[in-house]
Each structure stands twice: as structure tokens, then as C-alpha cells.
Amino acid sequence: MSNALRLTALDALHRSLGATMTDFAGWDMPLRYGSERDEHNAVRTKAGLFDLSHMGEITVTGPQAVKLLDYALVGNISTVGVGRARYTHICQEDGGILDDLIVYRLGETEYMVVANASNAQVVLDALTERAAGFDAEVRDDRDAYALIAVQGPESPGILAQLTDADLDGLKYYAGLPGTVAGVPALIARTGYTGEDGFELFVKPEHAVQLWEALAKAGEGVGLVPCGLSCRDTLRLEAGMPLYGHELTTSLTPFDAGLGRVVKFEKEGDFVGRAALESAAERAATNPPRKLVGLVAEGRRVPRAGFSVVFGGEVVGEVTSGAPSPTLGKPIAMAYVDATYAAPGTSGVGVDIRGTHEPYEVVALPFYKRQK
Q1: pLDDT one-digit tens code per residue, 9-23
Q2: 6-53+145-237 falls under which CATH superfamily?
Q3: How far are the Cα atoms of 113, 208, 247 from residue 319, in angstroms, in the given order?
């Protein structure tokens, strides 16, 4: 059956833990193990353990690897040092976002691009096509890695029990090769939760051993396994965009309030440059809509696609919405007309099945951890 779901190396383990599984971008992934609210709160206050093996790893190597990436992506990859990582976008010629990515520089001429599961093939195809004429190789490494994340304030202490790597010296958005629980891993201080934490790239055959070691190391401090459901509420509270919701091919990084990822000052041309220069100008002078946070005054939860209204007129659209365990009320991200985008704007509502529920416009993120 060609349409069978792909399974991660931890599939049997998730089932043994009683996970509720769901189809996510063609992968059978854990949605939750118990209460998603408890999982969410564990990450905010203690720690959570995630299987992220559905993410798409693409390795770019060769003498001109960095030249290729500077041409193919909107960021300035030549300024990323060995052992560091950078958040960036890959865009179409018209400036529309194909995906948001993290690029890790693993060596002098070796980079790993991590794409969203739903876009991994699209990104692989685009990089392969854009590599023409460069002395660089693009390799599909999706099957070469399992990815396990430990996130939350207790995560450095948990990981420190299992590795001699210098975690204190590992900055946010840095990655270093090391050994965790006897397993070779790329240890990255990255995450999608708004908390401190680590993402560990290992060979699939080592995934179960690593997961079990992390679970054991975290037993005393409240570590729990976490599914995709709480990952979504965590990233939403942290104001982090999700591809297919806040980011799409019909939006440029400037539309998404992420114009800072586009580096016009880098050397040479890059795909989408001309379109993005126009988009930057438009965003500065006459922005179409702005991405904002909305906090409910009532209890009803807005969902993606619901209309944002003001005085009976549609002035925007919700891109993501959920109950916020941390704030104790429903929240949403939405694109709204610039006129209504200022934090504190009241009188804005969300049309929830014909009723205009009142919301307050707030600045993103909804939640920022105390450093």
C-alpha cells in the first residue's frame, strides 16, 4: 500500500505508552499520551519529551554549499559559524514562502537543512533544482535521522545526566556533536515551545535507547512524554508561526512580520529577491494585513479560517487558535487590517458560528519565559 503512513523508529514505544496517534503529513505521530493540558504545563514548568522524527533533514555539502544556500534561501548563510544554526525561509520567485527552515552548519562545507514534514519533498526538490551550476551536493537524509526533543526548564539538568558535552557553553541556536546516553548525537539548543531545551538528532536505530534514557533521567523532575497537540499550544503561546497557518505560498516573509529573515545585503542574487524588495517596500508604506495576537474575553475557542470582525465588517482571518493553558483563556494568531493591528485595540471580534465573540488585540508572543 503506497498510501500507508510512515512510522518513526519510536512507533512501538508510543503505542506501549498508550499514545493517541494521528496522521500528520503522512506520518503516524503521537497526538497526546494523556491530558494535553498536563503535557503542556509539564513543558512550561518541568520538562517534556517529544518525537519529532517526521521533520525533514536535507544535507548540503561541497565547496560551494554555502553559495548554493545563499542563492536558494533568503538568509545570509555565509555568516553562520560552524556549530551554529539559523532560522530562515525558502521562497518562490514571487516571494511566496515555500517553507520555514533551520539551517545547521555542521562543518566547513557541510550544512543540514531541517524542513517541516509537510514540505520536506518540496524543499528537497527546490534545493536540488537550485543547485544546478553550483559545486555542491543536495542529499535527502530524512531516513538517516530520528529526532528527539527534550524541552522545558528542567531539560538542561536531565540532559546533563546523560552527556559530557558542554551544555552550559551551548548557546541558543547552536549545535554540537556529542554522545548522549552512549549514543552519538547532534545536540542542538533549539525548540518550538518557547522554553529552553534541546533537539537531538540520532540514527533511527538509537532512538529507543535514547528516549528510554531521557525518560529515566527525567523521572524525578516531572518529565512526561508529549504529543503534537501540546506542541501546537506551546508554539502558539510563544508566537511561533506554523507552516500552512501563519506561513503559506501566498504570503511573503514581510506579510508574516518576519521580514528580518530576508537579508538583502548578502552578496549575489537569490531566488525571490526582486519580488521581496517590492514586498519590503509595501510592508513599510502600506501593509496589507499584520499578524497579531488575539486574547478572548469569553470561553469560545477560535479556529483557523474564522473571520476577524469589527463593526460588522470582516477585517481579518484567524490562522491558529486554541485554549491557552498558561493564560487560562482562548488565544489566536490572526492577520488583521493594519488599522486594527495596534495592541490594545478593542471592539474586535471573531465570528464563531455566527456570534461575534469579543477579543483584545495583543502583541506577540503571548508568553515569554523568564530568562
Answers
A1: 999 999 999 999 999
A2: Probable tRNA modification gtpase trme; domain 1 (3.30.1360.120)
A3: 26, 35, 9
